């Protein structure tokens, strides 16, 4: 069926203002902007979450239909569907991950795990055995999906969760996530030049793709466990997102009203250098030049040692004064006792 399915989020069910959610806190007014979405591995299901704290589940086969509209506790940053297609894992701004059933589409969410920092992304291993969560404090945690309290490993110094995480020191690192071992590190500065090391581009929350108008392609050598640089595709505008098809075709979404979506295809075994098609997506036009959603995601660094030492000195002085007062009180009571025991004349 080649008919177009349209779903208007503004007409979907909304939670009344002031009504308490699962966490016991009242709801606030939001917009209908979509914050995150994902297909199931087979493509049979599609889920999205929006700024109104709604999780909307669709079935795509035999035809598209809305299955359920549920409400989440916090605005979400990322979501993923299990390979078994029985659950949706949703990461939110408070650092929690909730699971929502697909087989029971009206059931409430279940808290699975939590971080002490805002979550940027969540992913699952192909067999659903491991769940990976990336937070704003530059780390990825690897846990058992069925027992998320059991932490398998940490991938430290990472700024964004993707198959090949990029870090703040202009490097591209390859990890064996089950052991937490780093197996390869590639210096991007040697490939990208100065544009990989500009101070304004050092942000621990924004994928490198969103900062520079170039797509860098690496090939994974599984035998040598190395990343091999292959080529780069220059863009006329900043890149927003990229995705490979199973056939190897590369889709690029860029910040451009005229040609936001590009498709590159390798021809006759050559690199991905030929632009095959350009697609115009009208809904993207309103976002070109708009304020970045990442502007508030920054990592503040500060030195609180002086403040700590000052508080420590104040505590020591208070303890010293308290001790002196106790000693003075004991001494006064002893003198008073001696006077009462003196014989009267």
From TrEMBL:
<dbReference type="GO" id="GO:0005634">
    <property type="term" value="C:nucleus"/>
</dbReference>
<comment type="function">
    <text>Required for the formation of N(7)-methylguanine at position 46 (m7G46) in tRNA. In the complex, it is required to stabilize and induce conformational changes of the catalytic subunit.</text>
</comment>
<dbReference type="InterPro" id="IPR015943">
    <property type="entry name" value="WD40/YVTN_repeat-like_dom_sf"/>
</dbReference>
<dbReference type="Pfam" id="PF00400">
    <property type="entry name" value="WD40"/>
</dbReference>
<dbReference type="InterPro" id="IPR036322">
    <property type="entry name" value="WD40_repeat_dom_sf"/>
</dbReference>
<keyword id="KW-0677">Repeat</keyword>
<keyword id="KW-0819">tRNA processing</keyword>
<dbReference type="GO" id="GO:0106004">
    <property type="term" value="P:tRNA (guanine-N7)-methylation"/>
</dbReference>
<dbReference type="GO" id="GO:0043527">
    <property type="term" value="C:tRNA methyltransferase complex"/>
</dbReference>
<comment type="similarity">
    <text>Belongs to the WD repeat TRM82 family.</text>
</comment>
<dbReference type="InterPro" id="IPR028884">
    <property type="entry name" value="Trm82"/>
</dbReference>
<protein>
    <submittedName>
        <fullName>WD repeat domain 4</fullName>
    </submittedName>
</protein>
<keyword id="KW-0853">WD repeat</keyword>
<keyword id="KW-0539">Nucleus</keyword>
<dbReference type="InterPro" id="IPR001680">
    <property type="entry name" value="WD40_rpt"/>
</dbReference>
<feature type="region of interest" description="Disordered">
    <location>
        <begin position="313"/>
        <end position="345"/>
    </location>
</feature>
<comment type="pathway">
    <text>tRNA modification; N(7)-methylguanine-tRNA biosynthesis.</text>
</comment>
<dbReference type="GO" id="GO:0005829">
    <property type="term" value="C:cytosol"/>
</dbReference>
